[in-house]
Input
Amino acid sequence: MASERSLTPAADGADLLALVDLALEEARTLGATQAEAAVSVDVGLSVSARLGEVETVEYQRDRGMGVTVYFGTRKGTASTTDLSPTALRETVGKACSIARFTAEDPCAGLPDPDTLATEIPNLDLAHPWDITPEQACQMAIECEAAAMAVDPRITNSEGAGVSSHRGLRAYGNSLGFLAAYPGTVHSVSCAVLGVEGEEMERDYWYSTARDWRELEGVASVGRHSGERAVRRLGARKLSTMKVPVLFSPDVARGLVGHFVGAIRGGSQYRRASFLLDAAGQRVFPDWFAISERPHLPKALASAPFDHEGVATRDRELVAGGVLTGYLLGTYSARKLGLRTTGNAGGAHNLIVAGRGRDFDGMLALLDRGLLVTELMGQGVNGVTGDYSRGATGFWVEGGRIAYPVHEVTVAGNLKDMYRAIVDVGADVDVRGGIRTGSILIEQMTIAGA
Output
């Protein structure tokens, strides 16, 4: 593979920081009492191949600036994709015009100065990949070929893809904060279809990383997708019953994601959460813990500061099953009478603690029930916690996978499901901002044929 290149001078942040500074100066000139601006530039290459032929080759180059100004507690926001000085000044002027017509909001404004990041750690997030379109296309073709070679029953494909993206974000505000940091994300993916008689099943696999050298090999990604598709052939339906349910790690991430949505400041102050006012309450079993680790090197959700320039810090979000607090930006914190937690823009690397069982150990603990490997639909109510989603996976008997299943629905209520977590596996999936192993729920309703 091609070697890593260093960031070019234009991409080291200096140019973008100068644009942010220009916007802030223009806001001061126009009489704004406070202002903030963010500029981002993203470039990327994405290719796809299907049935041995290149389907798409796409270059992306996105850039833009967002400006927010405050006149007292009146707020105005405007954005532009034109980063010329003239366009920036016009954008700031539009934001100021908007602010003069908005209602006063006592919670509006920049973060408290003492919450801003004063040191910007190097989190090793940028690893540019000098891959050519020709190399990327060949990798995608090889990935799909590896999947198709797994079994003669794999007769069709949705294709394989290779992508590489790098970006740079600069942020500053009128409190004196001004900083930028780069990042890269690379991925390889493949999805194929297996056929047996009149039955057709689809499955996929992917790898993603900040550092292209840490991607799973393309042949391995292809084999995984092929093996997963073949495993699902011969799937059966189930009758309606209540049994334990084990969510595989990539699916279990979604269970934690619903929890994250419920404890966001916006959900709390809008009174639209099934975990309303739950801080200080036991939400999970007494052994359960979730940690936030924003400064993990190379991690996909790492950040030295949040979208408001507030310092990100390690935090125990759930300890002993108890929710210790919410995920807050400045505005939501003020609405709740609290302080920002450095989560404007989201959570940063949530790590769910397990008790050491590998996947086979989790299957043994399940004993008899459903292993869910894919979910469909959006049947989750963030206000009530009601949960009902289509699922595919495998029926487990005696701690061993017995046969694949499809066309079933798993249902429950998230509050009950969280309290009924039996264990979290050590088979952690790190391909996202939530790192968790498989999650076993004591009992859920399965609706089948």
